[in-house]
Specification:
With 686 residues, the chain is an alpha+beta fold. Helix content is 45%, strand content 25%. The longest helix is centred in the first third of the chain and has 21 residues.
Length: 686
């Protein structure tokens, strides 16, 4: 009997185990203490243990503490809720880290109480990865900066992302079920459909530019990439449409094109585009005139009123010229202060002169800026084509040479091109090139012209004058190289050298035992407004050891009147150093006496243009008397330059002029000759 019962029990156990092993996924039975009562082969395979090492063990025996605690919590929840529990648990298995979905159900005894639980687990790792990939695809789709559309086989919208909604202005609810071709700009629709039919159907792909008509009524350029998706039977299933908004790119391209062809200040064609148009005119056999205008004093206006004032002047000049030109004429800005004009149909030089004079007069009209009226004249160079050149580069070069010739003649001038100008321009360029190296090669030197006191007949100072000793050309006149130095910016390092050398030489004379006298140094407009003039003077005095009272800075009248308020401050800073200050070329500018009396000056110098004819010209004589009177009223010394006759000297002495300089008494001489020159006029302290 007992044997029969044991056999029956074993048979039932085998049937139960066979039933468990038939389950392909891990299955198990545990008691309320989490001890394994039975399990199947799939469970053992997953945890890598044989059956006899599993049955009878608890959850904490079989799994790491963290996993075991998570499993135990789920088991207890089954007992607390008295209901099945589903959850997901990550396991480190022989096949790697896997995600399982668990189902646990309570097992009850005959008394209705839970005796344990039965569980089964399904490996859902692949499903989890698929869902994660789907979520990633959805995120990429929705967050892509490119517009994306998915169409069905009939090319109707199924999905679109936020980027396309933003670009088109339409939401998915409005687009779903519609052909996106309905959004194409009408003027592009026919050609678009034709290209799509030809390429998408034959190549399963189409790329090209389309124009989208947005909900806001704007047409936006898009770069479109369409790909076809087919099923396993090669049946068309979907269209994937990728779009890139080209609006900003095309705007940037337009800006780049504008930068390449347009002057950003005036909106006019730049030198490159102006030359292109000139080349096209020449290629088409057109005859006409090329004019180049160069403003005479843009730099001074920038220094005196600021660069915003200079910009205003440039724009106003462009507007004035455009107003006087015909629609078919071309106006461009060729450089910082240069404008070019192309006209046709004017072969008579008289007619061309009339046009140029009219344009120059327009440029010279006063322009209100910051409560003042600014006037800027210009010079013009003229070329007739094709006579003066058959290509754009030659004509521009020749017109530039004519303009420089006009500029050399003075402000508000114009010149027609001649081949002689090319030679002059070549010489000018060579001279400028040599000038750049002259300072390094030590080719500059200073000459000094004594200044005499009319009462004591003694030398009280010398004015230093710059000379250039060219290795091939000999001594180059200042009037020939000083303008070049100012235009090229070389006047700044040259001016610094002159200041330092004059101070050094004056101290050297004193160290040699000569009585001290003042050395007067001319300060150019660029040097004065450079921003470092005070530091330059301080450095020159410190290096040379010269007492500041023996240095006099000569500044032209026009320079100090450009920005009076700033000049008052700057002159005050120089005066604190202990140097003397004088106005050079007085009477040639537009001094306001209200400002003049505020400047901390020591001396006024009468320009030579008033001295030359004062014996025969009543107006010049009156001006000289007036300047002397102003100086006396302001308690300033007055010196006259350019004195060449005894009559001029006597007139100046009679009218209480303090000092004179000029050829009548002594010519400028190199430093080594000055002691002998001065010996005839024993110096006294001023």
């Amino acid at each position: 009997m007992a044997q029969d019962m044991a056999a029956a029990f074993q048979s039932k156990e085998r049937e139960g185990r066979a039933l468990l092993d038939a389950i392909p996924d891990p299955a198990w039975l545990v008691d309320t203490d989490a001890r394994v009562l039975a399990t199947n082969a799939a469970f053992c395979r997953n945890i890598g243990l044989p059956m006899d090492a599993v049955v009878g063990k608890t959850t904490f025996d079989l799994f790491p503490p963290g996993t075991a605690a998570q499993l135990r919590e789920a088991q207890l929840r089954v007992y607390r809720d008295n209901a099945p529990v589903r959850d997901e648990v990550w396991f480190d298995t022989n096949a790697g880290r896997r995600l399982y979905e668990f189902l646990r159900v309570p097992v009850y005894g005959t008394d209705g109480k839970a005796r344990g639980l039965a569980g089964v687990a399904w490996d859902i790792t692949l499903r989890f990865e698929a869902e994660r990939r789907q979520r990633l695809v959805t995120q990429v789709f929705d967050n892509s900066t490119e517009g994306l559309l998915i169409l069905d086989a009939q090319a109707r919208v199924i999905l679109c992302n936020r980027a396309f909604e933003h670009t088109s202005g339409y939401g998915l609810a409005e687009l779903a079920g519609h052909d996106p071709g309905e959004l194409a700009a009408p003027q592009h629709l026919e050609s678009l459909l034709e290209r799509l039919r030809d390429e998408v159907t034959t190549q399963d792909n189409w790329r090209g530019e389309i124009w989208l008509h947005t909900r806001a009524g704007r047409d936006r350029p898009l770069w479109c990439n369409i790909n076809v998706v087919r099923d396993e039977q090669n049946h068309l299933q979907n269209f994937i449409v990728q779009t890139t908004d080209l609006t900003e790119r095309k705007a940037a391209e337009a800006r780049i094109k504008s930068l390449a062809t347009r002057d950003q200040m005036t909106g006019l064609p730049n030198r490159h585009d102006f030359g292109r148009v000139l080349g096209e005119w020449l290629g088409n056999g057109r005859r006409g005139t090329l004019l180049i205008f160069d403003l005479d004093n843009l730099g001074r206006i920038n220094d005196g009123f600021g660069h915003e004032a200079g910009d205003t002047l440039l724009r106003a000049t462009g507007t004035r010229l455009r107003h006087l030109l015909r629609d078919e004429d071309v106006l461009g800005r060729l450089g910082s202060d240069q404008f070019g004009v192309l006209t046709t149909g004017n072969s008579d030089t008289g007619a061309v002169e009339a046009i140029v004079r009219k344009l120059l007069d327009a440029i010279a009209q006063p322009l209100p800026i910051d409560g003042s009226e600014v006037v800027s004249t210009a010079c013009a160079g003229i070329c007739l084509f094709p006579g003066d050149g058959t290509d754009a580069a030659t004509l521009l070069r020749n017109a530039d040479a004519a303009m420089h010739s006009a500029k050399a003649a003075g402000p508000n001038q114009f010149r027609f091109f001649s081949h002689k100008m090319n030679r002059e321009m070549a010489e000018r360029l060579r001279l400028e090139s040599d000038l750049r190296a002259a300072l390094d090669r030590g080719e500059f030197l200073l000459h000094y012209q004594p200044q005499h006191d009319l009462e004591s007949h003694r030398v009280v100072g010398v004015e230093c004058l710059l000379r250039w000793r060219h290795p091939e050309l000999g001594v180059v006149p200042p009037g020939q190289f000083i303008p070049l130095a100012e235009e090229s910016g070389l006047i700044l390092p040259i001016g610094r050298w002159v200041l330092a050398e004059a101070c050094r030489q004056n101290r050297a004379w004193q160290d040699a035992g000569l009585p001290p006298w003042v050395v007067a140094v001319n300060i150019s407009a660029p040097q004065f407004h450079d921003g470092s003039i005070v530091e330059q003077v301080r450095e020159a005095l410190a290096v040379s050891g010269l007492d500041p009272r023996w240095l006099e800075l000569e500044i032209t009248e026009s320079v100090i009147m450009e920005e009076p308020e700033r000049v008052v401050t700057l002159l005050g800073q120089l005066k604190v150093l202990g140097v003397r200050l004088s106005i050079d070329d007085f009477g040639t500018g537009y001094s306001s006496l209200a400002y003049l009396k505020r400047f901390p000056l020591d001396k006024i110098k009468i320009d030579r243009s008033f001295v030359t004819d004062l014996e025969t010209n009543a107006n010049d004589a009156a001006i000289v008397r007036m300047v002397i009177g102003i100086a006396k009223d302001l308690e300033l010394k007055v010196i006259a330059e350019g004195v060449e006759t005894a009559g001029q000297r006597d007139f100046l002495h009679r009218h209480r002029c303090d000092q004179i300089q000029g050829f009548y008494l002594s010519r400028p001489a190199p430093a080594e000759s000055i002691p002998d020159t001065v010996a005839a006029f024993p110096p006294t302290q001023p």
